[in-house]
Input
Amino acid sequence: MGSGVLVLAGLVLWWFWGRPAQPTSVHVVTVKPSTLTEAVYASGTIVPKLRQEVRAASPGKVAKVLVKTGDAVQAGQVLVQMDSTLADAQVAQAQASLDAAKAGQTLAQKNLAQAEDRLATLKANPPAQNVAIAQAPGAGAQMYANPISSGSFANNASGAGVGVPGADATLQLEGSVEQLQGSVQQAGSAVKQAQAALNMALAQRDQLTYRAGFVGTVLEVNAQQGNPAPLQSPLLVVADLKSLYVQAALNEADAGKVKSGQKVFVSSKSLSLDVGGQVQTLAPEAVARPSLQGNAAPTVDVTLSLDQVSETLKPGYSVNVKVQVASKSGVLAVPQEVLFQEGERNFVYTEAGGKLRKAEVKTGIADDVNQEITSGLKTGDQVVLSPSREFYDGMPVTVIGGGSG
Output
């Protein structure tokens, strides 16, 4: 009985250690030229190119709300009117000041014209024949023309007997004209100041009327007629829904591959959306935005245009973004699953003559499935899929399946 057990144990040991080892079975693919397209993926948000948030410039009461959510509006159309009682009073006061200034200017110009006419008449009649006695309006001395001999004096308006030689009358009237010219200039300055004050009052009142800056659609209305204007939120929001683009954020590694003009594919299963576009702009800096877990890794904002804007798209929708960053034809490529790393170096196992050969490779661009090999392999090489850690150079193997790279 004991001898039988020993024989059986010997057979078991022979089965495991005495019989010849069977080669490991592997699957391989054949390396051949391929076309690769490398892409960067991100999520994005639909954003209108034109968006107007109407906010109250100062606290006040809403007098009128002339639109509602969903309304189409034209450029310049009045959207909200704030209470303008005080502004109207300021405009009326400024208008009255301007009217008074203009009346003063008209009077000053009239007085100057009269004085200039009298001076011209006086100069046309020499003092030897005629002493022109005149008063410039507001000068305080009325002078009359009298046919008296040279050297006589003219009587003043009050008949006080104060006389002025003819030559002195001319000088006096010239001085009055100069004074009146100064008065006209001062009156002109007063008109300009009053006009500026009126323009400012009108501008301040106009700021209480909010208008659409472009053709668009009202997205939200927060203002309520008769209530104070909301200060924490806009009175209303208008956007151009016919001009939409995609705003996305890329991580640092992907942002380095993206450039303006690259082709973009925008999709959304829920929206049945699949449309092309282009990279428009890339932000000049990376920003780490705060989150519930703290500051996230820095990202770079990118704007993407759309070749077509579907009516189903609305601002705020989320979409999937694929940016084509590189494309090559006729390059050697292998499935990414054949690669393994040792430190920062990439390796593959090839199969030749029933044995594994370890080969270091250099990589290029990659798509979702395949990796470009720039050196280390050649067309026709058999590369092992999913290499195990137990594999080693020279290891016997049996190929049980194959395919094309």
Summary: Residues 87-206 form one domain. The chain is about 25% helix and 35% strand. The helical segments are 2-18, 85-124, 166-206, 252-255. The CA atoms of residues 142 and 175 lie 14 Å apart.
